Amino acid sequence: MKKTTKLLIIIFIFILTNINIFAESGFEAILNVPIGLSISIPTGSYRESFLDKNADRSGNIVADAGVSAQIGYLFDIDKYDDIGVSLLAEIGYQYNVYSYMSHLNKHYDNGFSIDDKLNYYLKAHNFQLGLLPKFVKGNFAFGVGFGVKFPLSLIISTENIIIDFNNREYHREQVNENYNIQDVGKLYESIVIPYVKLTFDYSIFFTEKIALNLGAYVNYDYGLKSKYADLRIDSVDIAVQIGLRFAPQL
Q1: Rounded to whole angstroms, how far apart are CA atoms 206 and 27?
Q2: Which of 101, 121, 120, 96 minimizes the C-alpha distance to 220?
Q3: String of DSSP letters for 140-161
Q4: Fewer C-beta within 10 Å: the chain N or C terminus?
Q5: Residue 221 and residue 237: Cα distance in Å, rounded?
Q6: 29 in Cβ contact with 8 (< 8 Å)
Q7: What pLDDT is attached to residue 78?
Q8: Is the model's pLDDT at 83 over the cut of 80?
Q9: Which of 133, 123, 9 shows the shortest CA–CA distance to 75?
Q10: Three-class SS of residue 102?
Q11: pLDDT tens readout for residues 165-189
């Protein structure tokens, strides 16, 4: 995360110090800070503690955050008024959480029963790399992009049930496990998270070359597939973002 932040700061300084040269030639760069919600979609099955593989499982809604830079070139279409196409590469850091809740409903022969819900969280510090072409009309822009996220580190948080049969009671226990980038390939079939996204932006120009960028996006992540279970957690991310845009004004 620290290395990614330093890289984005260097890019930002480079843009500021060279904006006059680049903007005149159609160079475009956007530095965005997104904040949003993620809706997890668990697929497949997994035999958890005290749960059978057909147990009810539903995705949780959690918060995501990050920072990204979009860098590329804005092509002005001369024959149309204030219409252009941006071809942008996207690089950034995202903190993504993939989570679901399992319903535990278990009955034992001695009459003791448990009716509770257990949460599972996969918290990923991701390095993001992708392409994001945009159609630009005046101050508005619409983009369709795709790319991959590389997990730099993971925290897996699981809830288990500890049963005291003598006193006919139970309590939850949360277990947190930390994994580094080398562990990802040992736990999952792929070390990347593919994604697709739709973006909507509106630019408020302070000058002919610098604007406040207000936007929103919908993103779909194809989650990591476990090597040890038929389980994958996809997610739909819905976010707003604010940033600075450096580009020619059409």
Answers
A1: 17
A2: 96
A3: EEEEEEEEEEEEEEEEEEEEEE
A4: N
A5: 8
A6: no
A7: 67
A8: yes
A9: 133
A10: strand
A11: 666 677 778 889 999 988 888 889 9
